[in-house]
Amino acid sequence: MKFSHWKKSPFVAVLVFLLALPAATTSGSKSKVPKLSNENRVGIIRSLAFEYAATRKPLPAGKAGIVVNAEGAVDERKLRQQLANYGAAVQTGEIVQITDIQLKSDHIVLEINGGGRTRKKKWHERATISVGGPGGTVPITGPRGSPEPPPSNGSAITVRFPNYIPDLTAEAVRELLSSVLDFSRRTASVPWIETLPEEFQEAIREKRAVVGMNREMVLAALGRPNHKVRETRDGVEEEDWIYGHAPFVTFVTFAGDRVVRVKEFK
Length: 266
Prior knowledge:
Number of strands: 14
């Protein structure tokens, strides 16, 4: 049989296709994007944890927050529905802080301003700490029967991927978040600080809280507290932000949005 006959035969065409199929499959598997590496996982956490940014969209209240897809886009219709149902925890243009990062199998969750949920108290928040001296035991939480804290002004941002988190760098994750967060304005806290009274500017530079500050100023000065506790004292609902560990503990007490007391135990 002549070669020209084999060349034209349907059998040959099928054979060529079958022989080429494994090569194509192998090539496709080699080009598959790898999963997130440990190196980039650590890099993402180090780069974004406790980072500040300005919001480009309002963030809805509640645990779900806002969802960004693998292309960095937001479902605007769903966002409008969430805002209508739950309201906005954070408005467009506000400076926010990423207070926690969770890297799941196929999505990344960024907690914003402490998250948009009211969590149950844990055992260590019902414990006490010793600050020295007679009677120097301070409860970390209020007494039983204290009113449950209302929802915080925090939210969440979830970046979802089709099957798994690809091997992205921290800069690539920032780019995906650019439709929601403006990281170039993380230093916008500098001109913002310059608009504050001098005593607050000085306190923020020295990393300390003073009476009269609001929550944003305290976050800029001290960062996220180790614990938060709400109590009603003399008919006034107050919230303590607790920093440090015994015997070096700082209590920053808010009434409403303003600091009314700062106590340091050393």
